Amino acid sequence: MNQSVIKALQLLEYFKEYPELTLAEIAELDNMPKPTAYRLISSLEASGFLVKTKHTNHDVKYHLGLKLLELGSYVADQLDYRRVALPHMKELSEQLNEAVHLAVLDGEEAIYVEKIESKKHIRLYSKVGGRTPLYTGSGPKLLFAYLNPEVIEEILERIDLKKVTENTITDKKVLAKELEKIRLQGYSQSKAEFYPDTAGFSFPIMNHHGQVIAALVVSIPIIKFDEDTEKFIIEKMRETSEKISRDLGYRE
């Protein structure tokens, strides 16, 4: 790589620690002659990577330009969340020895876009491409809960809560409280709401904008549901969802 390009990129690194720097400060930090520093800074300024701030006639400082934000957003948008999530999902499935899914919002339904089967002989009903109403199951409810409040209200007004199992929520007031609870605790649970023999847990996957773009879902046979299992699954799922979100650029 051209040495001037390398030097210019190194200069940008200093702005992570110092929001604004003068020409003299940059030259001193990098131990380079002022004319060299000025040439590099001028090139970065012309390209939009640095912006000049003139406080006084003798106090010119530079700060990072919006071009970096533009490029950063482009890179983040190019990340394939399924590709990023998959190795973490495999690790989680091995830790729990349970099926792990990734679900996303599609209109007023959740669609499962990825699944890691458990190694047990018991196979659950869910499959990639399967769709579920937003009001039933841990993953769909989580995606529902993290929608804009106005959108939630609109959907609740028109949605028809059809009973799928004995545990399906069919009361809109109860559903609204459930969605609020999910947002407050940061995850979702379900017991035999869509599939009669299955319990589910779900955590949000965030992108670099802090938006929920997917639900990480673990499904287990309901006969295995007990307090110790619940605590262990929630702990491991929280760790995994945070790892995936970080890899997608999310920062708290």
From TrEMBL:
Keywords on record: DNA-binding, Transcription, Transcription regulation
Keyword DNA-binding: yes
Gene Ontology MF terms in the entry: DNA binding; DNA-binding transcription factor activity
Residues of the IclR-ED domain: 67-250
One of the GO BP terms on file: negative regulation of DNA-templated transcription
Domain (HTH iclR-type): residue spans on this chain: 2-66
Keyword Amino-acid biosynthesis attributed: no
SUPFAM superfamilies: GAF domain-like, Winged helix' DNA-binding domain
SMART domains cross-referenced by the UniProt entry: HTH_ICLR
Pfam families: HTH_IclR, IclR_C
PROSITE patterns named among the record's database cross-references: HTH_ICLR, ICLR_ED
PANTHER family: HELIX-TURN-HELIX TRANSCRIPTIONAL REGULATOR, ICLR FAMILY (PTHR30136), HTH-TYPE TRANSCRIPTIONAL REPRESSOR ALLR (PTHR30136:SF24)
Protein name: IclR family transcriptional regulator
Annotated source species: Planococcus halotolerans
